[in-house]
Structure formats: C-alpha cells, structure tokens
Amino acid sequence: MLVVKTCLDCSILPDIHVLQLRNMKNFRLVLYFAYFIGVLAVNAFENLSKRNTTAISLSSTYVHYLATFANDGDNITNDHRVCSHTELNKDKAWLQLDFGKPYSINTINIYYRNEDNWKPYRFRQFYIDMSDIPATLSNTSERTRCYTDNTTYPDLPPFIMEVPCKLTARYLIVETTYDAPEDDPNTGAILEICEIEVFGCEVGEYGAGCKSCIGCEVCDITSGKCRT
Ligand SMILES: *[C@@H]1O[C@H](CO)[C@@H](O)[C@H](O)[C@H]1NC(C)=O
Ligand SMILES: *[C@@H]1O[C@H](CO)[C@@H](O)[C@H](O)[C@H]1NC(C)=O
Ligand SMILES: *[C@@H]1O[C@H](CO)[C@@H](O)[C@H](O)[C@H]1NC(C)=O
Ligand SMILES: *[C@@H]1O[C@H](CO)[C@@H](O)[C@H](O)[C@H]1NC(C)=O
Ligand SMILES: *[C@@H]1O[C@H](CO)[C@@H](O)[C@H](O)[C@H]1NC(C)=O
Ligand SMILES: [Ca+2]
Ligand SMILES: [Ca+2]
Question: Fewest Cβ atoms closer than 10 Å to its Cβ: which of 18, 79, 118, 165?
Fold first, then answer.
C-alpha cells in the first residue's frame, strides 16, 4: 500500500466558501469591466474544452479521479472527489486537450484543487504548451510554451487562474515535473485540475463571437489584424 497524505476525506470548512465567493465576485467584476472597455470579452469566445469533438486525457489517473472531471462544466475546487488527479510517484504529469484540429486560443481558465487542508502545493512551476504533436509523443522542445508559473516554496499559485495563451495548435498540454515537499514521502509530479476552460476560435476567426478574418486567412485572435 502507498502512503497517501493527500487528505482524501477531509471536511470542508465554511471559510473556504467565503474565500471562494470573494474571488468569484472579483473575477466577475474584472470580466464586467473588461467587457465595457471592450478589450477582453473572454466569455464571448467559444469554450473549446467542452466541445463534443475535444478529447481530454491525463498522463495517468489516480484511483477514479478521471480527466473528464476537468471539463464537466462544474468549477468546484474544494472537493477532490470531483477533480481530475494524476498518479503518485511519476516524473511528469500532464493534462491534454485534443481539439481534433488546430484552433486559435485566446485565454485559459484553470480551477485547481483547493481544500481547507490541501492547498495547490503541487501546482507550483506548472507550464502550458501547445503543439501539433500529442503529449505522449512530444517533448517540450517540440512544443511552444505559452505560460510558465514561477511560484516557489512556500508560496502558492492562485487556485483560480486566468492565463493568456495566444497560440494556434491542435493540442493544449498543461504539464509539470515539480515535486511538492508537502506530500513527502511521495516523490514526483502530480496535477489536480478541477476544471479547465479554453476560450478561442476556429483558425481564420477572431474576436468576440469569432468573426471571420477580413482580407486574410489568419489573423490576430483579439485585434483581427492580418498576419503575413
Ligand atoms: C463557477 O461556475 C458557476 C456556475 O456556472 C458560475 O456562476 C461561477 O461564476 C463560476 N466561477 C468562476 C470563478 O468563474
Ligand atoms: C463552457 O462551455 C460549456 C458548454 O458549451 C458551457 O455550458 C459553459 O457555460 C462554458 N463556460 C463558460 C465559462 O463559458
Ligand atoms: C456536436 O456538437 C455540434 C455543434 O454543437 C452538433 O451539431 C453535433 O450534433 C454534436 N455531435 C454529437 C455527436 O453530439
Ligand atoms: C525531443 O525529440 C526530438 C525529436 O524526437 C529529439 O531529437 C530530441 O533529442 C528530444 N529531446 C529530448 C530532450 O528528449
Ligand atoms: C516565469 O519565468 C520565465 C523565465 O524567466 C518568464 O519567461 C515568464 O514570463 C515567467 N512567468 C510569469 C507568469 O511571470
Ligand atoms: Ca469539474
Ligand atoms: Ca513530494
């Protein structure tokens, strides 16, 4: 038997709800403001992670905490039983979205496991790559990095993050090789993503509502400016 220190049956304290509600309020305020200044109408892009042609997978699955918990439309973060979770003691952990064909991405929202006694320790140092080669066949040199988290112990990354990622490719890979000290004696990298939302358009489209690029095949995802 493996010794697991990951709080598999912890109770949920009310102060977590309060914290989460505050964050949600701030997040909404940001979206509301951004909408009116017309810079970042995030929700007007299509949420590609939930398309019926998108396949979600994990590098490994811990018990029954399946990849599909991360795109079931439920963003709850304080109950690990409804979050995806990779196996213990692996060198690398990733969650991959396969859109079936290349898509142009704008932003990504990640909701990470955050319980009263199990914080996002394992989310430090994660990175996001995009590639036309799947995670099982590619190393990081064959991908394009769109985000790197630089949080170091004992700091924690936020458990709800909006990450810019303006790239075009078929596969989006959230990956980590970080070994958190908090779960010792377990070694290796683990991902516990509760929900991932990917906002973007078909290639050749841009902006809120995904309009066709004007006068070119490919254009900037936000401004619509043609790329040469
Ligand atoms: C989580 O999902 C609920 C229900 O869809 C939504 O009302 C809420 O705004 C979401 N939370 C965040 C932080 O986006
Ligand atoms: C993500 O997509 C699903 C299905 O299209 C939708 O129900 C959900 O509200 C979307 N989430 C956001 C934040 O737009
Ligand atoms: C997938 O979604 C598209 C667009 O929403 C819809 O037209 C199609 O019928 C769906 N296919 C399946 C197999 O559900
Ligand atoms: C990455 O993959 C390429 C192509 O398969 C290979 O040439 C290269 O040596 C690999 N790099 C690492 C660090 O494994
Ligand atoms: C993390 O560090 C790398 C390398 O210095 C940098 O390119 C990247 O922008 C940093 N990430 C963030 C979110 O600041
Ligand atoms: Ca979920
Ligand atoms: Ca460890």
Answer: 18
